[in-house]
Every structure is written in structure tokens, then in C-alpha cells.
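Per-record layout

source: Autumnicola lenta
name: Glutamine--tRNA ligase
length: 560
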Amino acid sequence: MSEAKRSLNFIEQIIEEDLKSEYKKEDLKFRFPPEPNGYLHIGHASSICLNFGLGEKYNAPVNLRFDDTNPIKEEQEFVDAIKRDVEWLGFKWAKECYASDYFQQLYDWAVELIKEGHAYVDSQASEAIAEQKGTPTEPGKESPYRNRSVEENLELFEQMKNGQTAEGAHVLRAKIDMASPNMLMRDPVMYRILHKNHHRTKDSWKIYPMYDWAHGESDFIERVSHSFCTLEFLPHRELYNWFVEKVSKPGELKPKQREFARRNLSHTVVSKRKLLQLVEKGVVKSWDDPRMPTISGLRRRGYTPDSIRNFAESIGVGKRENIIDVAHLEFCAREDLNKTAPRVMAVLDPVKLVITNYEEGKEEWLEAENNPEDESAGTRKLPFSRELYVEQEDFKESANRKFFRLTLGKEVRLKNAYIIKGEEVIKDDNGNIVEIHCTYDPKSKSGSGSPESLRKVKGTLHWVSVKHAIEAEVRLYDRLFSEETPDADKEKDFVDLINPESLQVIKGYLEPSLQEAGVEEKVQFQRIGYFCVDKESTKQKLIFNRTVTLRDSWAKKSGD
């Protein structure tokens, strides 16, 4: 077996086997079929990457099809967001399709099923239908309306379509087998009455197809060869095939449904229903809140398309569901941003540092590299002056030998600048340090090549010139939930497990090169983490979102 064969995942193996039997390469066509009832999340990103990745691998078209069969929950906002997300991830669809494009064809086929005795109108309440379904170990009971005449079924179905019947008065059901061991085959509902406006078809339809009826038939209409979905749809495969069989002709290529395991992410939820709750209850501000696992939220937080695609590729596709540690997603972000994000200086918990032997009023502009991982990124100029901000945690009045940052009587280097030595501290009436006084070695300038500049010191600090610093709002985002699996315990409300420190808003001081930073621009605040400019940011009020810290801080918390 060749190396290429060994590296195929099981879905690619299915395609390769099909190409050896009933499929030609030109028959291959895939689709990504979201329901426009919410924003896409990281789980959808894996499905997007799978389907569009197969399209790229086999040079086959991939449709973006919206399974828009539920006007109660679907909105144009969600359609627009989904298209934006797929494009942002770097994929192009062959055709933009909608299940609603096929409403007339689906209706016509339903009429044919009625005529052939494969569907009937049931006038029972939904509760009675559910009760008659039986259990996995007990067969269901036939509806008293199951043997209505074809003529009566056609007449009632047309009345349903024309809006002449009330919501809930009737449903159209497929006539299959009420004793089937697969409960989905026990006369599933195909249509329900909804007097609701659809985001595309407006008020032209009063009945709407159920997902199982519309989904497979849409695949068939579009000549999709392979319909890949998550494992929850495995029991639906038999029904999918039954419906397609009823509308296809002998010899026609039928779409093949196959399933892969959903990948759940730790410290979050990926149920659209639960994500909607977070939005509606005000736990987060919006679907694209940077704490949300939505693609739009991850984008706003500063994740790159490559980092998400790399994440999807690294976890692969499998046949068993499992939980992926969110730390792996964060690792993918760090790995990508490390290559591309310019290094800048920002101080988020400032204390003033005064270089007492530096001339008052003097300033100089120092050379700083933009990204040591990318030589082509070049350099920039940084202003340096007598008064600087440094991080409070970078100074201790007295420290042990393992503390390699600034303390009294010891030397450290200021990044891209000079070696300084702690001399004294100035405190307020409460004993808090308000200023650190230092001296500097004028001959120790970074990059000067002087013997003094080559002197080894153990610590290097980042800093910002007080005179030139830009104030910015910095939003420190963290994991949304404090528990690894917040929705695992059915006795607890998952909303009660929100991490109270999932967002902290502070004031930061930034180097002046960031004054012109544009929305979604990504940088590394040296020694702190990766950040990006939020969409609410303006030149008058800069706002930066933390994407990820430089290292996994949660590993420390858990004692790893």
C-alpha cells in the first residue's frame, strides 16, 4: 500500500472505493448544507473544511446550500453571516442553493407519493402522533387516518397548501412501516402547516417540508454524489435512502449519505440552541462575541482562517465522538500568529519608571524588528524617553535569585533600548509603589555593538514611553466556561457554569505605531499575548481583543 493510500481518512476511502465501482470522477459533487437558524460554530468549521477540502482534492464542485425549511427560526442575517464565514475561511462554492428553491418540486413529488399510496394526511394532534410512535422495543400503532383514500388525501393536502386549514390541523406523513425497528421509519412527518413568512418565499407557502424530506431530495436535485453528515444522522440514512428511491428513476445517480463523528470542544457549548440562549439571556453581547465558539466570534477575537483550517485538519475525521481540548485550538492560533503577527510593545498594568540620569526632555527613536520569525517584516522606530511605563509584575523591591526581572541593585535590559539598574522606589501614603527610579548605561544601547551593549543580563523588559503612549481599551478574553464539559450534567444549568473571568476590560498603554491599526489587525504584545483590533475600535478610542496568551495559562491552573 502506498504512502498516499495509508494517509487517506475513512471518508476519502469511501470516495476512492466508489470511484472504482459506480462513480466516475466527473460524477463527484459535494455540498455544505447549513440551516440558517444561527451563526456557524467551530464544529461547522470542521464540516466546511471537510466538504470544501474534498472539492479541492478531487477538483469537484461544492454547493453552499441553505436547508431553509423552518421560517420560525431562520433569518436573512444568518444567511449573510454563513456566507461571510465560508468566504473568510477561504472557500468558494460552485452554486448558492436553497431548499426553498425546490419547494414546488418537493410539493409535486409529495403529490406523486400520495397518488402512489406512499403518503397520507394525518389529522391527529402532534401529541397523539408521538404517542402512537411506540418505543424502540415496542412497535407503533397505525393512525386512524392512515387508510384515507387518495382523493381525500389530495384534497386535504391542497387545502393545506392553500392556507385553508389552521396550523396543527393536519400533517402529511410518509406511509412506511409502523413496526420498523428504526423509529424514524414509522410514518415520518413530511409537511406541517405554518402560516409564517419565509425569509425568501415570503407568504407564498403555507406548508413547509420537514428536514428529512427536503434534505435528501435537495441533494438528489443538485446531483450531489456524497452527503456527509455527523453521526446523529446515522439513523436517518435509511429514511434518506427511502425518500430518494421514491423520486428517482432506475439508473439515475443517487446521493450517498455517510456519517462522521462530531468533534466537541472543551470549555464551551456548540449547540445552536444553547448558543442562542447565551445571546438572548445577555450572557454574551452577540453571536460574534469573541467568547463565542462561532466562526464570527473567533474571527473577531483574532483567530486567522489558517489557524482554524489547521485545527480542523489536525483533528481529522473519525467514527467516534470525542472532546477536543480547547487548548489545541489555542495552540493552532499561537502557531499561526507567531509566524505572521508583528511584535509591538504594550503595558497593561503600568507603573512609572524614571531613568534619573537620562536627560530631561530628551527623546530618541530606536530601531525595533517587527517579527523575528519573518525577516521581510522589516523594522520600525520606537520613541524612548526619560519616563517609561513597565509592568508592575516586572518589578520587586526585594526578590530571590530566581526573579530575573527588575529589582533594586540589579540590572536588566529594556527591549531594543538600554541596560538599566534599579536604584530606589517612590511610594504613596498607603505604601504603594508609584515610581521606580533607575539609572541607565548610555553605552549599552541595543544593536550598537559596543562592549557594554554585549554585556549579558538575565532579564529583558518591555516598556512604553509615557510621553508617547497611546491609551487603549484592552479586552482580556478567556474561556467562556470554567468547566470542561458545561452541558454534560443534566442536573445543572450550563449557564451557571460561566467563567466569571471570561472577560476583563482594562486600560492599556501602547506604543504609538498602533495609532493607525485597522479593524482585525493582529499583533503580538510582547511577553503578553496575541491581540487584534476590535470592530468597535476607532482612532479616538482604540480597542484591542486578546486572542490568546503567549502560553497556556490554564495548564498552570490545573497543575499540569
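summary: The two ends are 40 Å apart (CA to CA). The CA atoms of residues 427 and 546 lie 31 Å apart.
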